[in-house]
Design goal:
Blueprint lengths: L1 E8 L6 E6 L6 H13 L12 E7 L2 E6 L5 H10 L5
Antiparallel strand pairs: 1-2, 1-3, 3-4
Helix pairs in contact: 1-2
Length: about 90
């Protein structure tokens, strides 16, 4: 499973992108479960907040648009793992 996250916004307004392919990772099965749960999670419709981060998450052709602080726990863990910020 290919997962790509692009984060924009924040105080500095920098863009950051990360990708990973679960087929080549020891923790691939757990990341795939996080991705599936993230796609099915019902997050409240949200608009970006000033100085907050916005995310575009691509998971095998499906796209999620997310905004802080409205991410679910699974979505936050997935974004952190893909951007290399811990799970």
């Amino acid at each position: 499973m290919l997962i790509t996250v692009t984060r924009t916004g924040g105080f500095a307004g920098r863009e950051r992108t990360g990708s990973l392919d679960t087929a080549y990772r020891v923790d691939g099965a757990e990341l795939e479960r996080l991705a599936e749960r993230s796609l099915s999670d019902e997050a409240p419709p949200a608009r970006p907040v000033p100085d907050g981060f916005s995310y575009v998450v691509h998971i095998d052709g499906k796209v999620l648009e997310l905004h802080d602080p409205y991410l679910t726990d699974d979505q936050r863990q997935l974004v952190g793992a893909v951007l290399g910020e811990g799970v």
